Write a sequence for this structure.
């Protein structure tokens, strides 16, 4: 029986190259060309979660204008799950799973663009890290803004354990996710951060809504 091929530290770059060679990436991104769209460009990174759809609908309700053209981008996630010692077969399975999810994300958001009559496109992009891929796309698109969603476990203002990071990182990390924070630190374009309510806030809001509805019913009965 031959030796089982495994991934070592230096092999990750080769794995990334192999993934990039087989995964569909829009030519306009891969070749580094600027977009030919007319109008103001908006970049919106999305992932496989409800936060991204929340961000899309919030943007649609509060920001979108007819002359805005939306560039929804997705960085297929698989690198974070690769561990030293994994077989190449296991890594390829991770890549296939990432590709399936990426294709579904593209389908979902293309439908949202069509249903809401928004001019735009859904791009699958790749880079050394999620945040760097987003920043590089922004350099190509030159957006008037970057719209990103974030979600925290606790409401703003809740005391947290102090850390040794700089004040900027410490304060921003309390309100935004790590990827959003890194894009904020490295991008030169204006950013709109859409914070999805945490579970505690959602429960409180639902309770307030129920109380208001009950009060209106009682008042109407009188």
């Amino acid at each position: 029986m031959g030796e089982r091929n495994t991934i070592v530290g230096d092999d990750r770059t080769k794995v990334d190259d192999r993934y990039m060679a087989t995964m569909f990436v829009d030519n306009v991104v891969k070749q580094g060309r600027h977009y030919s769209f007319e109008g103001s460009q908006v970049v919106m990174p999305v992932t496989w979660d409800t936060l991204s759809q929340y961000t899309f609908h919030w943007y649609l309700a509060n920001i979108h204008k007819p002359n805005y053209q939306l560039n929804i981008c997705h960085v297929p996630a698989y690198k974070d799950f690769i561990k030293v010692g994994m077989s190449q077969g296991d890594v390829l399975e991770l890549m296939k799973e990432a590709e399936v999810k990426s294709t579904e994300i593209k389908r979902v958001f293309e439908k949202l663009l069509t249903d809401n009559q928004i001019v735009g496109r859904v791009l699958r992009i790749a880079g050394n890290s999620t945040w760097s891929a987003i920043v590089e796309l922004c350099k190509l698109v030159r957006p008037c803004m970057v719209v990103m969603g974030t979600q925290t476990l606790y409401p703003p203002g809740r005391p947290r354990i102090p850390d040794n990071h700089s004040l900027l990182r410490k304060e921003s990390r309390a309100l935004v996710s790590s990827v959003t924070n890194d894009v904020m630190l490295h991008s030169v374009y204006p950013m709109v951060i859409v914070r999805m309510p945490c579970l505690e806030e959602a429960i409180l809001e639902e309770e307030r809504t129920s109380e208001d509805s009950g009060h209106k019913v009682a008042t109407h009965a009188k």
About this structure: The chain has eight helices and five strands.
